[in-house]
Design brief:
Blueprint: E1 6-8, E2 17-20, E3 29-33, E4 39-41, H1 42-47, H2 52-55, H3 63-66, E5 77-80, H4 114-117, H5 140-169, E6 172-180, E7 193-196, H6 205-217, E8 222-224, H7 232-237, E9 244-252, E10 257-258, E11 263-264, H8 268-283
Parallel strand pairs: 1-4, 3-5, 3-6, 6-9, 7-8
Antiparallel strand pairs: 2-5, 7-9, 10-11
Length: 294
């Protein structure tokens, strides 16, 4: 039986994100799951060419559950409620494809980024696999409504968590959690995890190495920045000179889910336990080296 899709009749009535806080934050880490939301607006089903299962192939399904132990070990976890195909918060706010819209876009919109060209802007044109999402042209007003209702509140909350963490500890490490499909370049030796730190510009290499070593100690194959070096979130929030670091974690979907049916596999439980072990090990780290003068 396929995992249920949760329909939200009116997106404005759905909280755009969920924050789970520890009783007391004891470590300078913030965990985020921007692509695991499953509240699909009815309007999307009216406008789309595809069924709900096809829409969900762009989700990082169940990733928020894999890292759910973060609050129990002293770190907050934020997860988007809305799906990536409705609004992608791992993009700039206004990366929009003019071909998707019936009316001209304002001149300040970023319509020429590589992500827009690939069909994966703030409002995606295609799902993972390349299938077109919409049967009609959208209006810019619709895009603006989604960005105001989803993108802006999510980033406001995420920035708030980072600011709170920096105020408390003097520094912060954001762990941005994602999942990855099988990649053609890695068929011969696929990694279990890819860590993206924008080639050591968004996160101090020492922190990346700590996460890498912890994962390898759990028996996983880890690759850095290939093919995922980090998206907008990593590059925007990762400012090591300001004592704010961001590291993207991509988890291979075939470790824990059936990608075609969007169902948890028996490996889900062991992987979640390992992610809890990872969080436990990070909770024991002395993170003072995240300050720029260390």
């Amino acid at each position: 039986m396929n995992s249920p899709i949760h329909a939200a009749q009116d997106p404005a009535q759905v909280e755009p994100f969920l924050i789970k806080r520890p009783e007391r934050q004891t470590i300078p880490l913030v965990f985020a799951s921007p692509h695991s939301g499953q509240q699909y607006p009815d309007q999307l089903f009216l406008d789309t060419r595809m069924d709900s299962l096809a829409l969900r192939r762009s989700e990082d399904s169940f990733v928020d559950e894999l890292f759910a132990a973060a609050p129990a070990h002293g770190a907050p976890l934020i997860a988007a409620s809305f799906p990536r195909v409705w609004c992608d918060v791992n993009r700039e706010a206004w990366e929009l494809d003019p071909a998707m819209f019936a009316d001209p876009l304002p001149p300040w919109v970023n319509s020429s980024s590589p992500r827009v060209g690939a069909g994966l802007g703030t409002l995606a044109r295609i799902v993972t696999g390349g299938e077109q999402i919409y049967r009609r042209k959208l209006s810019f007003a619709e895009a603006e409504a989604r960005i105001r209702a989803c993108w802006e509140p999510y980033h406001g909350a995420l920035a708030g968590l980072i600011a709170e963490t920096r105020a408390k500890f003097g520094y912060c490490l954001l762990i941005d959690c994602h999942s990855m499909p099988a990649h053609p370049a890695h068929l011969a030796n696929p990694p279990h995890f890819v860590l993206g730190d924008a080639h050591a510009t968004a996160c101090t290499p020492r922190a990346t190495r700590l996460v890498e070593e912890a994962l390898m100690g759990l028996g996983y194959k880890v690759r850095r920045n290939d093919p995922y070096a980090g998206g907008f979130v990593t590059r925007h929030y990762g400012r090591p000179r300001e004592a704010t670091h961001a590291l993207q974690i991509e988890v291979a979907r075939n470790l824990y889910m059936d990608e075609a049916r969007i169902e948890r596999l028996p490996g889900f439980g062991p992987l979640r336990r390992d992610m809890t072990s990872l969080i436990e090990s990070l909770a024991r780290v002395e993170w003072e080296f995240l300050t720029p003068d260390r």
